[in-house]
Amino acid sequence: MDIETIGIADLFGPPSPARDRTDANILAAASGIGFMAIKDFPGDAWLTPERRAELLRIFSLPDAEKQKLLRWNFDCTKKNVYRGWFPLQPIAVSYKEGIDMGPDLAHGQAAGDSQSDDPLREPTPLPAEETLPGWREAAASYYRAMEAVGNALMRSIARGLGLPETIFDADFQGGISTLRLIRYPLRDASAGIDISGPEFSVIHKGETRSIIGREHADSGFVTLLAQDGVEGLQAKNLSGEWIDVPPANGTLAVNFGQLLERWTGDRVRATRHRVIAPKTARFSIPFFYEPRVDAEIAPLPLAGAQPFEPFLYGDYLWDSATNFVEMSGIKHLRQPRRAKAS
């Protein structure tokens, strides 16, 4: 099965047969391969090389400026532990650098509560305006555009499952969605590590290619990924084969996370994916659409779905996200907030 590109303009209009068909196409992709590409939506003007470059200017910052944005696990003098910059780690399989930004980027300080003791609600360290003029405004605009797309997809999935379209809305009010900017450089051949083994390389179309993004399934609800026109992203199809995810301009690659898979009683599929090294540096811009920290994830009224013990999204997210290499060493910094009694 190939990855289908679906036009979603009708999701932003009133109820109609065309919207119903779009809902059905989205649910078919979500419950099948668990991956799709979307086009034709408000905010798709960002998906050009010129507009993406506005966001990716952050990688041109001098190292001294990037270091001001580092997370605590890379600079223990910093207070931020979940948001901020992660540098290249030469001996890791996932060879990338970038920044994780929260809702305060787009909605101001109230969305990143400096008085909160929850690291999932901490403010995002951002570059000063004078170092990257206009960058913050561009990044905030992109964040808000992706929130709107995430909301439209969330409602479409609800309708496709036969649920009220607003059933998820309250859980996402005050959500902690993450905008991540990533650069995958060419791996330094002089780093002194053997990248010939199966952990670091694969055979793709008869050629040995190194892995720069370890195989995984995203943990959350839905991921909206803007690619830079450079190949490398692959998804595992229903036959267990790795297929390329086309990096076409004007589209977002969409994959569904483990939270949504569990929440929908496995009606939606969380697909495993990876990144293999292209011939040049690669940039990507994933947006992880996420509920509130204190959203209670409880079984949906879906016939035949297996029940599960309700849990708080923040507890779930922290337990899963801190397993990634760029979050190593921080798991102990947050304790579960509440265990729901059955």
Question: How many alpha or pi helices?
Answer: 8
Strand order of the largest sheet: 1-2-11-8-13-5-4-3
Domains (count): 1
- The rounded distance between the terminal residues' Cα atoms is 40 Å
What share of the residues lie within helices?
10-25%
In percent, how much strand structure appears in the residues?
A: 15-25%
| SSE arrangement, N to C | EHEHHEEHHHEEEEEEEHEEEEH
What is the CA-atom radius of gyration, in angstroms?
Answer: 20 Å
Low-confidence runs of at least 5 consecutive residues? none
For this structure, the CATH topology is Jelly Rolls
Describe the structure.
With 342 residues, the chain is an alpha+beta fold. The chain has one domain (5-333): B-lactam Antibiotic, Isopenicillin N Synthase, Chain (Jelly Rolls, Sandwich). 23% of the residues lie in helices and 21% in strands. The chain has 8 helices and 15 strands. The strands form 3 sheets. An 8-stranded mixed β-sheet has the order 1-2-11-8-13-5-4-3. The chain has a 5-stranded antiparallel β-sheet with strand order 6-7-12-9-10, with no helix packed on it. Strands 14-15 form a two-stranded antiparallel ribbon. Strand 6 (201-204) and strand 7 form a beta hairpin. The relative contact order is 0.17.
Short description:
The chain has 342 residues and is α+β, with helices and mostly antiparallel strands.
Q: What topology emerges from the helices and strands here?
A:
Blueprint: E1 5-7, H1 17-31, E2 35-39, H2 49-56, H3 63-67, E3 84-86, E4 97-101, H4 104-107, H5 135-160, H6 169-172, E5 178-184, E6 201-204, E7 207-216, E8 222-227, E9 233-236, E10 242-244, E11 252-256, H7 258-263, E12 273-276, E13 282-289, E14 296-297, E15 311-312, H8 313-321
Helix pairs in contact: 1-5
